[in-house]
Write a structure and sequence with these properties.
Layout: E1 2-5, H1 12-24, E2 29-32, H2 38-47, E3 54-55, E4 66-70, H3 82-89, E5 94-99, E6 112-115, H4 121-132, H5 138-152, H6 162-173, H7 178-185, H8 191-201, E7 205-209, E8 212-221, H9 228-239, E9 243-250, E10 254-261, H10 268-273, E11 278-279, E12 283-288, H11 293-306, H12 331-341, E13 345-350, E14 353-359, H13 360-368, E15 387-388, H14 393-403, E16 407-412, E17 415-421, H15 422-430
Parallel strand pairs: 1-2, 1-4, 2-3, 4-5, 5-6, 8-9, 15-16
Antiparallel strand pairs: 7-8, 9-10, 10-12, 11-12, 13-14, 16-17
Helix pairs in contact: 1-4, 1-5, 4-5, 4-6, 5-6, 5-7, 8-9
């Protein structure tokens, strides 16, 4: 008997990868674990005859000769199949693994291991299906596209790569339905989910870790709420913190962990893996058979504080010293200076105090009015938005977007110490080697 299994609380990437593996191993049976994600259960209620599967409780462990594992390789996340895993570790079962997670101490032994750094396990299998020239129908293509979308945050999570995008493009060519995908990617919240979200918004404990704001929340629940993960995703989007870690005690004997990270400096997957779960840098979860939810929360906190995000400040990005002009400088002189410096604006300083800023557009307006002989004080912007040298670059980005400005003076102790521009922030976002472009 050949079986295909995946991790607990199977999500769309896990289900899609299992179905794709069955395409490559047509004699294998998909066997699902004890718990499935809410969205997967709803999907299977409509598609179970199209993608038939068995459950772990119906499995005869002694009959398995080939174990195919997708989207996981940690034994701790295969607890529902522990008897088959034990036989596999003894070499009694042939093991094939398709995964995209980093190695861990409790990884399952494998005879054939296909592990690559991509955003979705489904991507690995779709590439092989394409290379094999296998026929794909609309329903298959849609499920596999759902898997890639779900595990890459629709191509926005940090672990996403070009291969995920190419696999999605190929699936669209095979007829993947955007209408069906949107139905499952953005399901409406249930009353229980809405109530949980409202409760969590008032219970967040925000801490500064390194230079980032990270939120933790802990709740004891009498029973599980369907759609934990969707609630935490919405919570992270609403609050805007660099990361959110949620720990739920469920029924006194289980712990559910869900984490979302918006910062490339916080690896949610690695942190959740430290308490027995798993996932990716941007999204992670775990269903733990433990009753000590408060201890799990403390362990997560300790792991994050033990390896805080690399401290980075606006001061690390800014240009310094800053070229400035005095308020009595003529606009014509400022225009010549900007052309020489190749700047698009310059701060105006009087007796060491920042009193305004003048931009190229201000100068162009003065030139059209024939007023370039006038002092800059009459044309500068007096209301200057600035940022502190020790603040996080994300704060500078937030201010630039909010006020639609291209540069921010950087202050320390009320004194002008530097300037940060759009170009500086683009280099932060896209990598230090990216082209500066105009500030």
């Amino acid at each position: 008997m050949e079986i295909i299994v995946t991790h607990d609380m199977a999500d769309f990437d896990a289900l899609a990868a299992a179905v794709a593996a069955q395409k490559l191993h047509p004699g294998a049976v998909i066997v699902l674990g004890r718990r499935l994600g809410k969205e997967v259960r709803e999907y299977l209620s409509l598609h179970k005859d199209r993608f038939p599967s068995s459950f772990y409780s119906d499995l005869d462990p002694e009959a398995v000769r080939h174990l195919i594992v997708v989207d996981v390789r940690r034994k701790g996340r295969l607890a529902d199949f522990s008897q088959v895993v034990e036989r596999a570790e003894r070499g009694e079962v042939e093991v094939t693994i398709y995964d995209h997670h980093p190695a861990a101490d409790d990884d399952l032994r494998a005879d054939r291991l296909f592990v690559e750094v991509v955003g979705s396990a489904t991507t690995l299998l779709v590439e092989r299906i394409d290379a094999a020239g296998l026929a794909v129908d609309e329903v298959e293509a849609t499920l596999w596209a759902l898997g890639i979308h779900a595990d890459t945050g629709s191509l926005t999570y940090a672990g996403t790569c070009a291969r995920d995008a190419r696999a999605l493009g190929w699936l669209l060519d095979q007829g993947a339905s955007l209408r069906v995908m949107s139905r499952y990617l953005e399901p409406p919240f249930s009353a229980a989910q809405r109530a949980l979200l409202a409760d969590l918004l008032g219970a967040l404990a925000v801490e500064r870790v390194g230079h980032l704001q990270v939120a933790f929340v802990h709740r004891e629940l009498s029973h599980a709420v369907d759609g934990f993960a969707e609630v935490i995703t919405e919570l992270a989007d609403l609050t805007g913190h660099a990361a959110v870690f949620a720990v739920f005690g469920v029924g006194g004997d289980r712990v559910q962990v869900v984490a979302r990270s918006r910062s490339a400096l916080i690896d949610a997957g690695a942190l959740v893996a430290s308490v027995g779960g798993g996932g990716h840098a941007g999204a992670a979860s775990g269903a733990l058979r433990r009753g000590d939810s408060a201890v799990v929360l403390a362990e997560l906190r300790a792991a994050l504080h033990a390896h805080p995000p690399l401290a980075r400040r606006v001061a690390d990005l800014m240009s310094s010293p800053v070229r400035t002009v005095a308020p009595n400088t003529t606009l014509r002189e400022v225009a010549r200076s900007l052309a020489t410096w190749r700047h698009t604006g310059v701060p105006v300083v009087k007796e060491g105090e920042l009193i305004g800023i003048v931009s190229r557009s201000d100068l162009e307006r003065a030139g059209r009015d024939g007023r370039l002989a006038l002092p800059v004080s009459g044309f500068m912007t007096h209301k200057v938005h600035s940022v502190g040298a020790d603040e996080a670059p994300e704060r500078a980005l937030e201010l630039m977007q909010k006020h639609d400005v291209g540069r921010l003076p950087v202050l320390q102790g009320g004194r002008l110490v530097g300037i940060v521009t759009r170009s500086d922030l683009r280099r932060m976002l896209y990598g230090e080697g990216s082209r500066p472009g105009p500030g």
